[in-house]
Design goal:
mainly alpha; two-stranded antiparallel sheet; 533 residues
């Protein structure tokens, strides 16, 4: 009976997942990205050179916040994860080489979505506890005047990113390290949990300092590894690009038989990978100290390019050039833990079974041997997954703090409604404002944050001992729900981001260093910028 109930719960979860991540969400992500690109007149192209320059530009007059590069690195930590290795292999395995072209397409247009959501996050950010906080929950409340939906988004994000997603990433680390180095999974889990604790206890500053070193360093090393593989197989590279372009339009060896799967898997994996429009990037974008919101919008658009056009493409080209992939027709579960795979196209150098990390390992093993290739990919997975866990924690912490601050404000309103004496209300209001300015003044908030830290670290350790399964699906449901809420919100709020862009470009045209004034763009509730004038 218990097993039956568990199977029913699993079936319900899978059904909910199929509803959330339906073709409607994929279509919404793609169409909204196209809409934003058109409305901004392809700002991701027009301002491409400026994107790179702004990485190293920050407002030195502001003592609060992190630098633009740190915000970029933190966002990159969340975007660049196991999906850049495993997800790309899956896209090729089920969609063929052409799926990578569709990943490029969604990245190109998705940069427009990333620009809009990051710009909105900067417009409506708050100075809370000496740190900038912002993201979808904040701009939904202030821009759409809906605290309810802001809280709904914050609750989903705190649960998905604080509970369900970190253990899945640690499970991937533990399994790869166990297979490559023979280390017991629980030892790997304990080590990851301890290192994570040392990082997140230091707050956003320490997370940013670690991210700005680890994330770019690992991405560069991984891309260099791919370049070495491609140089050795340089004669095959032109043919690889030709196969990708043919496959993208149904002109490959399989014709149009898998064109639907090619587009579907390419778009879906592109969305999973670069996270544009999902609402996670703007949480980090809000933490940056800049003189104009558009600056951080351009930086975050650039991070989408790095994730998909460089890191994902590096994985794809290695797999395709070495021909260590198959194109899957069907995968059938024949028994618990056993599957039967049928192929549309099978290459002699490709590992059997479902697509995954072994496609990448097999490609690299042609150069340095299977053992060394497995070790290198395991190390890459460790750093990619660990920095992703750091990003998850920050997403959860920011939204938990949002919920706690709104709960206190609700308490204050209740006091007024009950007609308590004015002196008590003013004292409570003063305490609330002080808690917003200085971290640690509000003991209750500090306790809540520490509970989140302890719980996240514990869940990371637990993840090394269990299989991902349902936990991964629940996390994906949370991310999908975040995307539904966020994309609808940024579509409704996009006129404000567009007015900010026009203001920025107007000041640039006049030869001025842009400084944001919300009143000049007819934007209300941009409290930080109004107080900063």
């Amino acid at each position: 009976m218990v097993l039956l109930d568990i199977s029913r719960v699993a079936a319900v979860i899978e059904t909910i997942y199929s509803w959330v991540w339906s073709p409607a969400l994929v279509g919404l992500c793609l169409l909204s990205a196209l809409y934003f690109s058109l409305r901004t007149r392809f700002v991701q192209v027009r301002r491409f050179g400026e994107m790179f320059r702004l990485l190293f530009s920050t407002d030195k007059k502001q003592k609060t916040g992190i630098t633009s590069f740190q915000a970029f690195a933190m966002a990159l930590s969340g975007r660049v994860g196991t999906g850049n290795i495993v997800g790309v292999a899956t896209a090729i395995g089920f969609g063929g080489p052409g799926a990578i072209v569709w990943m490029w397409v969604i990245a190109f247009f998705g940069a427009g979505s990333a620009f809009v959501e990051a710009t909105l996050a900067q417009i409506f950010k708050e100075n809370h506890n000496g740190q900038f906080r912002g993201g979808p929950a904040y701009y939904i409340e202030k821009g759409l005047h809906s605290t309810f939906f802001g809280c709904v988004f914050a609750i989903i994000t705190a649960i998905a990113c604080g509970i369900f997603l970190p253990p899945v990433q640690c499970n991937g680390i533990a399994l790869s390290m166990s297979q490559s180095f023979g280390i017991a999974p629980w030892i790997v889990g304990l080590a990851v949990a301890l290192v994570l604790a040392l990082v997140i206890i230091g707050g956003v500053k320490r997370i940013a300092n670690v991210a700005q070193i680890v994330a770019p360093f690992m991405a560069i090393l991984y891309i260099l590894l791919a370049i070495v593989v491609l140089v050795i197989h340089y004669k095959l590279v032109p043919g690889v690009f030709l196969d990708m372009l043919r496959g993208a339009v149904g002109a490959g060896p399989l014709g149009s038989a898998i064109l639907g799967s090619t587009i579907s898997w390419g778009v879906k994996r592109g969305i999973y990978s670069n996270e544009a429009g999902q609402g996670t990037g703007p949480i980090v974008a809000a933490a940056a100290k800049v003189r104009h919101p558009v600056k951080q919008g351009l930086v975050q658009a650039f991070s989408v390019y790095i994730d998909t056009l460089l890191v994902c493409t590096a994985t794809a080209l290695m797999i395709l050039a070495c021909q260590t992939y198959n194109i899957i027709d069907t995968v059938q579960v024949t028994a618990p833990g056993e599957t039967t795979v049928t192929y549309l196209q099978q290459n002699p150098d490709a590992p059997d079974g479902e697509p995954g990390v072994f496609y990448t390992i097999s490609a690299i093993s042609k150069i340095i041997g299977k053992r060394a290739a497995g070790d290198i990919v395991s190390i890459a997975l460790f750093f990619f997954a660990f920095t992703t866990i750091m990003a998850y924690y920050y997403y959860a912490e920011t939204n938990l703090i949002y919920l706690f601050s709104r709960f206190r404000r609700w308490q204050l309103r209740r006091m007024r409604e009950k007609g308590l004496n004015q002196a008590a209300i003013e004292q409570e209001k003063t305490e609330l404002e002080r808690a917003d300015r200085v971290f640690g003044d509000d003991r209750s908030e500090k306790i809540v944050v520490w509970i989140l830290r302890i719980f996240t670290v514990a869940m990371v350790f637990v993840g090394s001992l269990t299989t991902s399964g349902v936990t991964w699906t629940l996390g994906d449901i949370g991310v999908g729900a975040m995307a539904w809420i966020n994309i609808i919100a940024i579509l409704l709020l996009s006129p404000k981001a567009l007015r900010a862009l026009r203001d920025y470009e107007k000041e640039k045209k006049q030869g001025m260093e842009p400084k944001f004034d919300p009143s000049g763009s007819d934007i209300e509730n941009a409290d930080f910028w109004e107080n900063d004038l």
